[in-house]
Write a sequence for this structure.
C-alpha cells in the first residue's frame, strides 16, 4: 500500500520537476494522503 503511494508520488513529482510551487503542493497532498493511509492501517490492525 505504502510502496504504491510512494511510486505514484514519484511519478507525479517527476512531471513537475521544474515547477517548485506544484512540487510543494504535491508534497502537501502526499502527506495528507499518507496520514489517511496510516489512519486506515491503524484502524484495520486494531479491528483484526
Amino acid at each position: 500500500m505504502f510502496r504504491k503511494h510512494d511510486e505514484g508520488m514519484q511519478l507525479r513529482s517527476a512531471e513537475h520537476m521544474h515547477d517548485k510551487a506544484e512540487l510543494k503542493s504535491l508534497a502537501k497532498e502526499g502527506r495528507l494522503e499518507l496520514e489517511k493511509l496510516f489512519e486506515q492501517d491503524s484502524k484495520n490492525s486494531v479491528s483484526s
